[in-house]
Amino acid sequence: MHLNGARVIVMGGSSGIGLAAARLAQEAGAEVTIVGRSPDRLKLAQESLGGARAVEADITDTAAIGRAFEGLDRVDHVLVSAGTLKNGALVKNDLTTLRQIVDERLWGVVNVVRGAAPLITTTGSITFTSGGMSTRPRPGSAMLTSMLAAVEALAPALALELAPVRVNVVTPGLIDTPLLDATYGAERDKLVESRAAMLPGKRVGTAEEVAQVILLLMTNRYITGEVVRIDGGSRFL
Asked: Could you say which of 50, 71, 127, 197 is the most buried, measured as most Cβ atoms within 10 Å of its Cβ?
């Protein structure tokens, strides 16, 4: 797989899957821009990538996302790997919390697509990330499950609307990233250990393994409108 000279924008590129994908894209020859809302994490990620372009922006801020594309004459590939994992029980949470889940997981994607669409090349691609709860909800996950499923439904529709630009989704299972710390806190290690024991391979996934699938979707020009699950077989359990 190569991306020689391609311009790749990674939303949520300051850590986890986004950072891993940015690194693989850079190694494949791409010119990479990472976008994130934490200036500290963004700076560290930029340094680890050897000076990739970095833009501070919250995916829910339409104007800020627009600035991420300013000054660019074209974009080849866009990855959206940002958004909360808050479960979002429908009745027990307040509306502000529930709206935040919708804003980050759905309207944030809309912001990125609208910003990228005028610039993206006809051989380019847009890749979203979803999550295993899109098809395997858990108690208290109603709003998050709905938004993850919405993104998976959005991709094939956009693959037709934006054609020949390709649009796909990667749906990871449990992946060992910093997002687990933020989501589960002190319960993180216990969760990882118990889930790993249940999986066929007896381990959870890595950000790099998901990033490899993302690069496949960027470089394979015959894949579009697909939802690719990389979950270690957890959906069969």
From this structure: 127
